[in-house]
Amino acid sequence: MKRGQRFKSGLVSSLNPSGYNLERWSYTVHRITGVILVGYLMAHIFETFQLTGGALAWANTMSTLHSLGPMEMVGLWLVAGSALYHGGNGIRLILNEVFGLFMGKPILPVYPYSPTSLGKSQKFAVWIITAFVLALWVWAGLYLLAGLGVI
Amino acid sequence: MDKIVLRITRSGGKRVSYEVKYRKGMTVLDALTEVREKQDSSLGYRHSCRMGICGSCGMTIEGLPMLACQTQVSSLNKEVISIEPLHNLALVRDLVVDILPFFDLHRSVRPYLIRNDVGERDHSDREYRVLAEEVSKFLQFDYCIMCALCYAACPTVALDPFYTGPQAVAQAYRYMADPRDEGWEKRIDLLDTSHGVWRCHMAGACSFVCPKDVDPAKAVQLARMEVLKKRVLRKRGREGARLVSPPMVGAAKEGVKPPPFDFGGAKE
């Protein structure tokens, strides 16, 4: 570490929620799922672009994808989970940021301090979304397994 | 616990361990002072008031930004304590970071009362009328001691060094909510930028580490709502609170003698 350099700054530090609050963990998951969705979007555009090469090119792309076997379904399951979490948590963030919900009003701080923006309503919102997303993600997994004929 | 070990990240990234005898009520700052006085006088760290008011002794203790003077060694419940400089700030030496860029961001949001009539503000024998319920809207954000813990904890600052930061946005909102201030629109223009309020993604780490419960995360969201009020609802800036004569000025003009000051029992 050299003099004048910002100490422990950057992507790794930004994504490390260790020791922090629940919302900070939520932030990290939101970011990671966002990157997964962008990656999927790129791949999806590339995949559909193959249609311009004609029916044979499309058939080749599909056969390549299907040759991945169960990995294709695992990938889709990850994308489904990412979309669910990113969307669900995104709704919470919109309620936070645009309407000020779960933030509380300005108060007179009294020791021991407990910030209202990280209070019970905020935690409740995070856990509700997490539970809802997990339930839907499990359902999506079962749906994909049924598509494979496993169950 | 008889002894503790301070594992300090010093200049150059080298981790150096110091063994210190533990005593009841010892803070991390006490332990650092003991190291500097008895073991290694070259250890660099910043401190001043030792009572959580000046905000000088911010450092990363066990991975979280904290004030060393307010952190009891016993509360960490560890015999080996890791100490690093504050993250997201440039290193000067050992645990000392360059706080000037942080202060520059604070200054950038014009953290003072803006009045259209500056002469009236600076040379008046009267005072601005503010109601108690109006004070309650900004008083919480007024307790900021500028320790930079929120800035060090913010994951957005880690990625965007040009982000205004939670402390500065909170101070901007503190003045936007002040009925005496007439700079509402000017501050919105300062905050409504690509490195302004929209960079916050509500991780809440700033509020989590704030030693004074200023709750910067809340202030940032409130500031964001003010920006939306102007940009979406087309709200215009308000006229600031009017000057009123304090009671004693009026009484003096009328020749009424003010009552003697109560010194709490002490004789004049």
Question: What does this protein look like?
Answer:
- The complex is a heterodimer of chains A (about 150) and B (about 270).
- With about 150 residues, chain A is an all-alpha fold.
- Chain A contains five helices and no strands.
- Chain A has helices at about 10-15, 20-50, 55-65, 70-100, 120-150.
- In chain A, helix 2 crosses helix 4 and helix 4 packs antiparallel against helix 5 (about 120-150).
- The longest helix of chain A is centred in the middle third of the chain and has 30 residues, at about 70-100.
- Chain A is elongated and about 70 Å long.
- The mean pLDDT of chain A is about 90.
- The model of chain B has no long low-confidence stretch (mean pLDDT about 90).
- The N and C termini of chain B lie far apart (about 50 Å).
- The longest helix of chain B has 16 residues, at about 215-230.
- Chain B is of the alpha+beta class and about 270 residues long.
- In chain B, the strands form three sheets. In chain B, strands 2-1-5-3-4 form a five-stranded mixed beta sheet. A two-stranded antiparallel ribbon of chain B has the order 6-7. In chain B, strands 8-9 form a two-stranded antiparallel ribbon.
- Classes of the chains: A mainly alpha (about 150), B alpha+beta (about 270).
- The interface between A and B is large, with 45 and 56 residues.
